[in-house]
Amino acid sequence: TGYLLFSGNVLAGICFFLLSLNGFISSNLAMGFCPTRCDCQHSQHLMCTNRGLRTVPKLAALIPEDVRIFSLGGNFISNISAFDFTRYSNLERLNLQYNQIRIIHPKAFEKLSTLEELYLGHNLLTAIPAGSLQPLNKLTILYGNNNAIKKITPELFSNLDNLIKLRLDGNSIEVLEDSVFKSLINLHYLHLESNKVQHIHRNAFSKLTNLRFLNLAHNMQSAVRNVFTFSQLRALTTLLLSENEIRYIGNHVFQNLKKLSKLSLSNNKISRMDSGALRGLSSLTELLIDGNELVEIPAGLLDPLERIEEMDFSRNRISNVDSLAFSRLKYLRVLKLKNNFLTSLSGDMFALNNALYNLDLQGNNWTCDCRLEDLRKWIAAAHSQGKLLTVFVQCHYPATLRGKYLDYVNSSQLQPLGNWTHLCRSQIGPEESRGGAVLVKVGGPERGMGAAEKPEGGERSGEDGQVEKGQPRPAAEAAGKPSTRLTTTVSNRSGEQLDLLRSDQDDALPVITDPCVFNRHFITNVSVDQVTSSTVTVFWTTRDHHRYTPGPGPGLDEVHYRVLFDRFGTQDRFPRYVYARGAARSVTLRELSSDVTYMVCVEGVVGGSVCQVAPRDHCVGLVTLPEGNGGGAVLTSDLQLVTVATLAGNAALLLVIGVVWLGRSLRRRLQRRKSAVHVRHMYSTRRPFRTTMATASVSTDFTSYQSSRPARLAPLEEGDLIEFPCDRFLDSSSVRRDSEMQRFSD
Hints:
- By secondary structure, the protein is of the alpha/beta class.
- It has a domain at about 500-635: Sandwich (Immunoglobulin-like).
- The protein contains 7 helices and 37 strands.
- It has a 14-stranded parallel β-sheet with strand order 1-2-4-6-7-8-10-12-14-16-18-20-22-23, with no helix packed on it. Strands 34-33-36-37 form a 4-stranded antiparallel β-sheet. A 3-stranded parallel β-sheet has the order 13-15-17, with no helix packed on it.
- The two termini are about 45 Å apart.
- Keywords: Disulfide bond, Leucine-rich repeat, Membrane, Repeat, Signal, Transmembrane, Transmembrane helix.
- It comes from Amphilophus citrinellus.
- This is TLR4 interactor with leucine rich repeats.
- InterPro entries: Cys-rich_flank_reg_C, Dev_Immune_Receptor, FN3_dom, FN3_sf, Ig-like_fold, Leu-rich_rpt, Leu-rich_rpt_typical-subtyp, LRR_dom_sf.
């Protein structure tokens, strides 16, 4: 057995030595064959990048067979000869990017039968010799981008049936010939952007049945009209046609692209699209057609886009959008119509787009009149339900509203202009534009209708979509007397509509001053009191504003106030308003939800108008009481009693703890005192020494100790204790001593 073990160890040592020697020899061989100026620290990678080389380095002998990567990028190589790569038969990646290559010999890559990646980008090639790539039957990636190639032929790509990605962008290709890519049956990605392509043969992309990505941006195409151009690209998911000169999109040109998910037509000159131009794009999710010259979006054009989620029509000349243009796009989430020539949009245009949350309407010349009333209501309703990001519709006309945003404009200001009266359903009366509170003029020849009120005998819609029949009219109104009333309706969680405040007023509200200035300078001391589980009273004070109001004889009756209250910190928000008469400085909010946080703000209503900027300086928060509490005063007294009881209990507990601690402290002191007296009593020198009946050893110890003391000394005091040597009292038995010492050592 020993002989066998020895032999095995010897053999293992010999094997280890041979392997180390082989690795050392291979490393030395690799370092020995490394080209000048190159780095060969890794045996499979010859790194010659950025070394100032002007030709491919020459080798004096064969290189190791395990070399797989040869990097020659960033040099000044201008010519690739037939013998430069003959010794690299096992090469898998060859990088020649960022050189000055102008000429490639047709047989330069003849020995590279295992090559999988070839990078020729950013050189000065005007053409790749036909047949030069034919030996590369395992090639999967070919980069020929950013050269000066003017023409490509089908022979150039023959035998490259394993190619997956081809980049020819940044060249000067003008024409894509018939079946030019017919050999690339497994091609997935094709980059042809930034060329000069003007003409694409109807069969240029034939056989590319596996192509997924096609980029034809930044070319010179003028139209897309041939239905056969993209007909065989059935697996295509992304098609980029931006930055061309396309003016026209014909019918059915994309009809076979059933899997296409993104189509970009941005920054062209498209002014017309046939009604069936987008037919067949049932899987499209993103359509970019911004930066063109479209003037309208007709009905039916976008209907084939069943799965569309994002559309961008920005920077066109669109002045008309049909009210049914987006009616079938139930998955639409993002719609951009900014920087067009829109002046008005139908109010019910987006009623069926329930998934829409991002609507960009900036940069249009909006005319804020009665035609935008329904759009304003839709925006307010979508905002209140948290379904829409902020939409900026900034008025351009009339001049009195220029610069103001639609959602902060009153309905009284949305009047028909010129001869457009027939486009409005009725003359719009004074109405607040935000939330569910409405200022309604009743009994006159005209009546304004808000988001929460319809004409008499009609229906009213609550927060959760519940409908309530019209309520009976007041007696004054039934008698035919004109009156103006402030009505606020809200809905509770179950959808029941509640009337919070109703007050009659005899005089109209003339416009007297800017409400923003009034809020900032005259409203002060906003507070809440008498909070219960369902009600709260809001108080505020105002400064005298008579002398600051323009016009003759202004008074307090010309300014009114409203209180905004909304659930704070919850996902579903729905702002409500309660209006107060001009002289009132308090409002009681009712039918609130118990144990809910509310934000309450006070702002002025000046001439039926409110400030464009939401109030922030005059707000206060509150939390309603839990269900079942009697009132604020009772709750306050209960809290006081609980506080006093708690303090009294804490004081009693502290007293008990102090007494217990003091007793224990005294007990410990007494015990220490008793134990000290006992020790003195036992060992005091005033007691007589033991008699002769004691053992000899003990009497000897005592005698020896006493005989050493001088006789002339005074008697020992009570506190003088005898010291006993410890070893005198240890058992002479060695077994016990060892066990005791072992115990302490443990």
